[in-house]
Amino acid sequence: MGQHLRSGDLEIWTEQVGAGPDVLLIGGLGDTIESWQFQLDGLADRYRITAFDNRGAGRTRMPDGPATVEMMADDAAAILRALDIPSAHVSGFSGGSIISQELALRHPDLVRSLVLQSTWGAMDAYLRRWAKFIRWLAGAAPSERDFLEDFFLAIYSPRAHNDGTVDAIIEEALAFHYKQSPEDAQRTLDAFMVHRTIDRLHRISAPTLVLAGGADATAHPALGRAVADAIPGALFEIEDGESHEPLQEIPDWWNARVDAFWQEVDAGVPGPPRPREAPSNPGSDRPVGGIPYIHGL
Length: 297
Prior knowledge:
The structure is a single chain. The chain is α/β, with parallel strands linked by helices. The protein has one domain (2-267): Alpha/Beta hydrolase fold, catalytic domain (Rossmann fold), CATH 3.40.50.1820. It is built from eleven helices and eight strands. The protein has helices at residues 37-43, 69-82, 95-106, 125-140, 144-151, 158-162, 165-175, 182-194, 221-230, 246-249, 251-267; strands at 2-7, 10-18, 22-26, 48-52, 88-93, 111-117, 208-213, 235-239. It has an eight-stranded mixed β-sheet with strand order 1-2-4-3-5-6-7-8, with helices on both faces. Helix 1 (37-43) crosses helix 11 (251-267) and helix 2 (69-82) packs across helix 3 (95-106). The radius of gyration is 17 Å and the shape is globular.
């Protein structure tokens, strides 16, 4: 059951499922609660999971005025406080990972641990140019289908494009009722492009796991490694052969890895990095479809 929770003058659509230690999921560009469906389904038997529609996405409107990552981090803090959650394991994907970083910097008491997937501390020239291209594409694409087909080329692996998974995701995205406008996507991208945390990450004290897709051409592994190097004690792992979206493409593996990390944090003994064993049938642990909206930058 979802509800709107207040962050300043903004009403943020939020849902909570499961029981156990608290987890907060923070998505990236255009992400809604449905983007985390594999995690909501796969981890709710062990955790109480909170997810929300970012400002300007889904059932949460984009307020007038500039959007900033600091505002988005304060939104996340407001949700935790409204739900009387003293601290949570925070998992952020892509743009949600820099919101998570900022949450840990601005509200460290609320962050029990961090999982940062497909992350960066400052965009390099390549990622900035790709984000500028997506910003242009959001306004210039002749149709929503054209936008998604082009955008997803850098988000999902060739495997997911070739086995029909991306086609299924596109059909569900087109049918999704609460679509993000091109203007709100552009404003969100503007916030992501100018944001920088790399010089402040040494102040984060929460146990941190940084994950990077080995074949991700956007938030490529060197950017994730720089984040892990800057956060004291952070673990860094590369998901071999994966692109920007392993939490949807290999959800069983991804859920098991973050579950193990959270258990280690709660036990007080975060473990060493673990190599990923590729499935014998790549992507076979991932059902086709079931993702009613996009996961992006």
